[in-house]
Each structure stands twice: as structure tokens, then as C-alpha cells.
From TrEMBL:
N6-(pyridoxal phosphate)lysine PTM sites in chain numbering: K45
Family membership noted in the UniProt record: Belongs to the pyridoxal phosphate-binding protein YggS/PROSC family.
Name this protein carries in UniProt: Pyridoxal phosphate homeostasis protein
Keyword check for Transit peptide: no
Residue ranges occupied by any Alanine racemase N-terminal domain in the UniProt entry: 19-253
CDD domains according to UniProt: PLPDE_III_YBL036c_euk (cd06822)
Lineage, highest ranks first: Eukaryota, Metazoa, Ecdysozoa, Arthropoda, Hexapoda
Annotated function: Pyridoxal 5'-phosphate (PLP)-binding protein, which may be involved in intracellular homeostatic regulation of pyridoxal 5'-phosphate (PLP), the active form of vitamin B6.
Keyword Membrane attached: no
Keywords, sorted A to Z: Pyridoxal phosphate
GO molecular function: pyridoxal phosphate binding
Annotated source species: Anopheles farauti
InterPro entries: Ala_racemase_N, PLP-binding_barrel, PyrdxlP_homeostasis
Obligatory cofactor(s): pyridoxal 5'-phosphate
Amino acid sequence: MIRKVMAEVDVKFGIRQTLQKIEEAYSKRKSISNAPKPLLIAVSKTKPVDLILDAYSVGQRDFGENYVQELVEKANDAKILEHCQDIRWHFIGHLQSNKINKILNLPNLHMIQTVHSVKLAEGLNKAWEKVKAENTEKQPKLNVLVQINTSGEDEKNGVQPEDAVGLYRYVLEKCPNLNCEGVMTIGAFGHDYTAGPNPDFGTLMKCHQEICTTFERDPAELQVSMGMSDDFVQAIEAGSTIVRVGSSIFGARAKKPTDA
């Protein structure tokens, strides 16, 4: 089955096409914003290692994974370790506090995008201090994003928008081992853009602005992670600086039994 999927999916074309769309959307936005060109996170969840190697071979370095065990297996895969030494892993799924230690010791872990609570931030902060002590090659601080539930859906994780400044403050002031690079949302799926802009994107940008104002941050230096395969162009137009694209690159994925 995996061979058949690989035969049908041109990952290299998917990467190039996605980067071209990012460039076009960014070019339109440059006149009204000094935010940096969006970073592409290739979401490789449920996809075989060989497809990751294909993406890496054309310059893609940032990859996103949703499931702890899958990231553990891929980050330690012999082919990845040999051929993708500059890969940067972003964890973009729900991280439970009891799974923290499984993920922080992984090679090439770059960022946890889904810090949704004080409890998780505190756990990551304490754990990273131990990781640094045991491995001096690790970066001084663990990069994180504050996850915000912009859609109000119970099944979505994230702090409520009105609490975003508070969680950012906690990370900034109480978590010296974390580097909070910005904000992130998943948002509701299937927004009808004929009805107008995505309200979830607007909500995240409002949180972004509130954090920048409160802490006197340059908006161009605070990352905004929003937008996926079906709406990353609109997300960039709204202000996104990180987009998480999976199916447009790797093809549709089969639903896993562990999906909620």
C-alpha cells in the first residue's frame, strides 16, 4: 500500500507548488505588512519516511508531526538520521504532560507549537532544564508557541483568546528555559470564504496584536502559525508567518484509529 501511495504522490512537485503559492501570497501582503515570508511546515503525519526524504531532497527542512509515538519513531529512524541531518521537527499535536519526556530528548526537535496551558508550559520548562544538563548540544531554550482556541470548539485544544496574554506572560516570566516565539491556532475546518474572511484568523491576529502591545514586541518578530492545505493562502493574506501543509504535499491521509 505504501509503495502505491508513493508512486501516486509527487512530493517534490507538491513542495515546489506550495512554496510558489506562499511566495505569491506573500508578495501581495508585503505592501501592507513587514512580517517575514511565511515558513512552510510540511506535515508528514502518517506518511512514510521515504516521502520525507523526497521533501528534504528539494530543500524542505521543517516538518510537523501530530502524534508523539510517530515522531519518536521518525526522529530516530536510521534513514532520517543519515540523510536529513539538518531536519527540524515541529510537534503540532496535543501534548500530554506525561509524554513530555518522550519527546524532548529527540534529535533535531525544533519547536513545540501547542503549548495550551500553564501546566504544560511548567512541565516543558522543568523538563528542558534537565535535558540541557544531560545534553550540552541542545539549544539553550526550547522554542514554543502559545496555542489559542479561536473557534471555541470543545474538541480543539488551546487557551481561550481572552487568556492568551496571561499564558504568554507566564511563559515569558516563569519559564526561563522556554523561548515563546509566538501564537498558533488550528481553528474550525471548512470555512466558506465566499462569506468573508476566516474569523479564527482574525481572532488570532487580535491576540497577536494584544501580546505585542502588552509586551512592547515588534509584530514582525512574533510568529503567527495558522493555515493548512485548504486555506494557507488566505492565512498568509491575514498575517500568518508559519503555515502547516500536509495533504497538498504528501497527498490525502488515511484516518488513524487514534484520531479524535
